[in-house]
Design goal:
The chain is mainly β and 846 residues long. It is 7% helix and 54% strand. It contains 6 helices and 54 strands.
């Protein structure tokens, strides 16, 4: 038999027959009648069209389905279909109280809900316009509800009723950086540094431990080695959705928009802006600078490493720090030539405004501690509160009470509408010191934020703060009392972050500036100015030029410089570059070539003239692997040094559903484990590029946004020929630190035409379905037992169902014969196999 002719004619005839059988007037009552007179007499007794007789009809029973509310996806769960009270032959989904809680009804809508089946199932006619239908093809339950009955929903944001705490899991995240530098005078150094987070999730709780450390080895004049690896803090936290707050216990840092941050052992309850819709959230801190060579950038606070990465030479901006990070950050740039620079960045807070009638609060209780897990100083209680008085005004304040040290603050914020937002506050501190007596002082702060849409510009933050000489923060009090060190008492602080677009001439500008003066030491300055422009030159489009200027003045050391770059596209993925650096030590000019090999690999190479006319070359390679991100770099400068470096950043997540190694950026952060039903090498698109499922059919998409609706998909265009995705997109809104779990519908195996035969030589009825061991439909029986089967694997057993249950099973041969001919497959009703199969069906509610 010609299988191609058979396949082309039979399915088409089956579709035409179904079209002819439908009695169109019956659609009005959602019941379809079939006229079987067009079929052969011998076929009329072998036809099962029960699954097609009613629109959206499903046999009573339990089905594992993804719940979709107005096209937004909730997690997969068991859904029971049962006959309604007024229609014994019907079948509708039973929406239990647990499912209804996830839908996000308003309080008024909840009061209108009515129930049946002993109050275990929602009456779908409780709310006008509400409908629900099941779809076996996509394994989904579609629920449509008028938006007026639902809580506030924004793009990519769901109300708390839909948040998912994820599943139990173990996590281990790491970031390692190694570097070896050989100086021309014979001096060599090797360094290895790392940081990360480990812990586990249990229900809504996240238990975490942060670690950091380093190893240094030198040869030559300063030969020696030292190493230090420590667990920097232990803590646990969870989201409390009803309070829109985060509860944290253990070692933490005071999270405050009024008071300076300090480390403590205790507990805190903080209203979390990340739980708010995106347009009501604050800003995360940002660190920018310029690297003279391939360099390692470390951001720390009070000795704890917050972020560490390697960057190629040129400007860099770190914009993915945790938005809960407050206070002063220490930034260290370690160049590959052995030099290093250090400066400080003050995190900016937008004016403390709160929506009318709402309260935002922060509470903390404990004792100050250090990196060695020792407590030092008096126990304290800290509080912070902001109240939205009306549409324009907010009143806020707070206090830190610790016996010999106390401080209190009071402020007011004003929404100036088209003129932006303004806030002003005063903080009073009072400290009793054994040798200096009582010191009392005030600190005044004024902050402003505004987006000028008509001018395509935005003042992200602008602030001024003045502190009297005797004003002490908690950190200054502890340093003065227990270490005798009060050096660095702040006097004035100016901070500005500004963006401006010039669309007519294609120029974008960015400036970040801070100026801090002290009562007892030189002033510190830090600014970064960036101008960029895109333009076309003849047939070459998107040529870009960028100018960056910077100044870092820290502890009487000035570091001023300018960076000029030109990028010319070359082909589809490559570009030619020119980099020029100019500073007090001289200038350098480099030309380079950049190319992106594919979605996961890129590199750049540079060569030219360094300072004082020395020849120089460098290279930088990035690989975003399925199990980790790897960076490799090398630099050479004639007569000075040669250096190579390697960076590795990734994580391991283990759950009861499986385990996978993966890329990671935010240590200990939120992630989603996806399951491809045991099929390996399935291409998955999520946050951070393309990845693939491992040998066990698991993959982890890291760095998903907490409290955002995240979508992850199978790249169907890159699927192998023998793999199909019946469900290629999954969604989830996860709480902070959660490990979500979602399953794709993936079928792997060959495809072929088959003829199914029962023991008596007859065939299963027209319309019977064939399903695999994962309950995915792999074919529908046509006339004379013909079926186009997908997901064929050697030795696999598939079930054939009609009349609502499994009637027989087929076993595929092993090895498979050539699939260019029609497969003849006996359908056995063997008692043991069928009993076992029915038990599986019952267990899975199918």
């Amino acid at each position: 038999m010609n299988v191609y002719r058979y396949f082309a004619v039979r399915p088409l005839s089956a579709l035409l027959a179904l079209a002819a059988l439908v009695n169109l007037p019956a659609l009005a009552v959602e019941t379809i009648e079939f006229n079987t007179d067009v079929l052969d007499v011998k076929d009329r007794s072998k036809i099962d069209l029960s699954d097609f007789s009613r629109a959206d009809y499903l046999m009573p029973g339990q089905y594992q389905m993804v719940v979709r509310i107005n096209k937004n996806e909730l997690r997969e769960q068991n859904i029971t279909f049962m006959p309604p009270e007024d229609d014994p032959k019907g079948s509708i989904p039973c929406l239990t109280p647990e499912i209804v809680k996830q839908l996000g009804f308003t309080a008024a809508a909840m009061r209108e809900l009515r129930w049946w089946n002993n109050a275990q199932c929602l009456r779908l006619d409780s709310l006008k316009g509400m409908t629900a239908r099941g779809d076996l093809g996509s394994a989904s339950l579609y629920i449509n509800v008028p938006q007026a009955y639902l809580e506030y929903v924004a793009d990519n944001w769901d109300p708390p009723s839909r948040w998912d705490n994820g599943i139990s899991a173990l996590v281990f995240d790491y970031n390692l950086n190694a570097q070896s530098t050989h100086q021309s005078k014979g001096h060599e150094t090797q360094t290895l540094s790392g940081n990360g987070t480990t812990g586990f999730n249990l229900g809504a709780w996240r238990f975490r431990a942060d670690w950091q450390g380093g190893y240094d080895h030198s040869t030559g004049k300063d030969e020696g080695s030292n190493n230090n690896w420590d667990m920097s803090r232990y803590y646990a936290y969870r989201a409390i959705a009803s309070l829109r707050a985060k509860l944290m216990m253990g070692e933490s840092y005071l999270n405050s928009t009024i008071f300076d941050s300090f480390r403590f052992l205790g507990a805190s309850l903080v209203s979390d802006d990340n739980m708010l819709p995106p347009n009501l959230r604050g800003y995360a801190p940002e660190v920018s600078g310029v690297a003279k060579t391939n360099a390692k950038v470390t951001v720390s606070q009070q000795g704890r490493v917050l972020y560490e990465t390697t960057v190629s030479s040129g400007p860099f901006r770190i914009q993915d720090l945790n938005s809960a990070t407050t206070g002063t950050l220490d930034v260290k740039i370690q160049e590959q030539d052995g030099t290093s620079r250090t400066f400080q960045v003050s995190t900016a807070n937008v004016p403390y405004l709160t929506r009318p009638g709402q309260l935002r609060y922060k509470l903390a209780l404990g004792k100050p501690s250090d990196l060695k897990h020792n407590t030092q100083g008096p126990g304290f209680a800290a509080s912070e509160l902001s109240w939205g008085i009306n549409n324009g005004w907010s009143l806020y304040g707070g206090s830190v009470l610790a016996g010999d040290y106390n401080s209190a603050a009071l402020g007011v914020g004003r929404d100036l509408l088209s003129f932006g937002a303004l806030a002003f506050d005063v903080t009073q501190s009072r400290a009793n010191l054994p040798q200096q007596g009582t010191l009392s002082g005030r600190s005044f702060r004024l902050s402003y934020s505004k987006r000028f849409d008509e001018y395509d510009s935005q003042v992200t933050f602008a602030g001024y703060r003045f502190s009297e000489r005797d004003y002490l923060s908690m950190t200054q009090y502890l340093d003065t009392r227990y270490h005798g060190n009060n050096y660095g008492s702040s006097k004035e602080l100016y901070t500005v972050t500004f963006n401006k677009q010039f669309p007519d001439i294609g120029i974008s500008s960015y400036i970040n500036y801070s100026h801090r003066t002290y009562w007892d030491r030189p002033a510190n300055d830090n600014y970064n100015l960036s101008l960029s422009r895109y333009f076309n030159v003849g047939r070459v489009h998107n040529v870009s030029v960028n100018l960056s200027a910077y100044r870092n003045s820290y502890n009487n050391r000035d570091d001023d410089g300018m960076f000029l770059s030109l990028t010319v596209p070359w082909g589809n993925t490559a570009s030619l570059t020119y980099d020029g650096q100019f500073n007090s030590s001289g200038s350098s000019n480099m030309v380079g070539y950049y190319d992106r090999i594919d979605d996961n690999n890129s590199y750049n190479v540079k060569t030219g003239v360094a300072q004082q006319g020395r020849g120089a070359a460098s290279g930088y390679f990035t690989h975003d692997g399925d199990m980790a991100q790897m960076t490799a770099n090398a630099s050479y400068e004639s007569g000075r040094y040669s250096s190579v470096g390697l960076g590795l950043q990734g994580g391991l997540t283990a759950t009861p559903q499986g385990a996978a190694a993966h890329r990671i950026n935010a240590m200990g952060g939120t992630r989603m484990m996806v399951d491809t039903d045991g099929v390996s090498d399935v291409p998955i698109r999520g946050y951070g590029g393309l990845s693939h499922s491992n040998h066990f059919g698991k993959a982890v998409v890291s760095d998903v946004n907490s409290y955002y609706r995240n979508s992850i998909s199978v790249d169907v265009n890159a699927l192998p020929d023998n793999v199909d995705a019946t469900r290629s997109v999954v969604q989830g809104t996860l709480t902070e630190g959660a490990v979500g779990y979602r399953r794709f519908g993936v079928i792997s195996g060959e495809k072929a035409m088959a003829s199914l035969r029962l023991a008596d030589g007859s065939s299963p009825p027209f319309g019977a379905t064939v399903v695999n061991q994962n309950h995915y439909q792999t074919g529908i029986v046509g006339d004379n037992g013909s079926a186009w089967l997908t997901g064929i694997k050697p030795g696999e057993t598939m079930r054939v169902r009609w009349n609502g249950k499994t009637q027989c099973v087929i076993s595929l041969p092993s090895p498979l014969p050539p699939l260019t001919s029609n497969l003849l497959l006996p359908c056995r009703a063997a008692g043991n196999d069928l009993a076992k199969d029915d038990a599986v069906e019952k267990e899975n509610g199918l």
